[in-house]
Amino acid sequence: MIKATSPTKEGGWGLQDTCRGRFPHLDGVLNGIDCDEWNPETDRFLSAKCQGYDNFFNKDDTTGKRSCKLHLQNCMGLREDPNIPIVAFIGRLAYQKGIDVIESIFPWLMNGDHAGVTGYVQVVMMGTGDEKYARFLRDAENHNKGRVAGFVGFTSELEHKIIAAADIILMPSRYEPCGLPQMYAQRYGTVPVVHATGGLKDSVIQYDPFQNTGTGWKFDCCDAEGLKYGLWNALNTYKNHKDAWAGIVRRCMEQDFSWERSAKRYVEIFKWARMDPPFHQPIPF
Question: Is 114 helix (H, G, I), strand (E, B) or coil?
Fold first, then answer.
């Protein structure tokens, strides 16, 4: 039995054929998260000690999320406005994470469109890695003071604060065995916009406005047009369909990404493995 970290069971960087060849013996279980650490009702980084006031919140009362936004805006030099959507990226500054795709759509996002969906937005990005992408974060902030914060580095406190305060989190990874920020984000009612690959595909439910279901947006092609599709629809819903957005936020916060859920799946797989005969492939001569 071979176990991957997402039910999609995709192989990457040379493992595609291996995964396909052993598909009958391959299974996948999403990683879990620490639901005690990532809990908007008790998160120590949302406490008065770290924010000046206790800005805790839950799915029934998200008032604290609004306060978290104002705190983050103040800390990161953004114009304080509780109504403007904050779009966040947290991750390694690497080609795999799709930071170059974010860079390619950045002017489109900041300049606005005829429908008024883009333009009125703030962007917060944090990460370390390739210097050319670090330069993008610095330049984006320097050329858009009060609208963009680009932090080259990483702190756990800032990660928690960004996830709690943001409205949308971007994860345009070219491949992602599992991914964790999209799970953290949903715990805090921060809606994911992700490339439909690996664990991102498995942990985000595509929003359906007709059935009023889903927890975010997925896009098939990891390129500028794909990311624009997901992000434009997220921003349009945030700005023009408030009730629908509130429903998405609530459904995000109701998701179970605990290790208890993952552990039950592991137990099932181990039971199946004991039932099946061992895999044996003799030398072909």
Answer: coil
The angle, 0 to 180 degrees and rounded to 10, between the axes of the packed helices 63-75 and 156-165 is 130
State the distance between the two ends of the chain, measured CA to CA, in whole angstroms. 25
What's the whole-number mean pLDDT along residues 58-65? 97
Using 50, 70 and 90 to split pLDDT, how confident is the model at 10? low
Query: Could you give the 3-state DSSP secondary structure of residue 207?
Result: coil
How crowded is residue 166: how many other Cβ atoms within 10 Å of its Cβ? 27
**Number of Cβ within a 10 Å radius of residue 104:** 16
pLDDT number for residue 50 = 96
Q: Which residues pair with 124 in a beta bridge?
A: 88, 149
Q: How many CB atoms lie within 10 A of CB 69?
A: 25
Q: Are 222 and 101 in contact (CB under 8 A)?
A: yes
CA torsion sign for 256, 160, 216, 14 is negative
Return the number of other C-beta atoms located less than 10 Å from residue 177's C-beta. 18
DSSP secondary-structure letter at 206?
B
Global pTM reads 0.87
What is each CA distance from 209 to 60, 130, 170, in whole angstroms? 22, 38, 20
Structure confidence by residue, pLDDT tens digits, 121-142: 999 999 999 999 999 999 999 9
* Helices of type H across the chain: 16-21, 48-51, 63-75, 99-111, 131-142, 156-165, 181-187, 198-203, 224-240, 242-254, 259-275
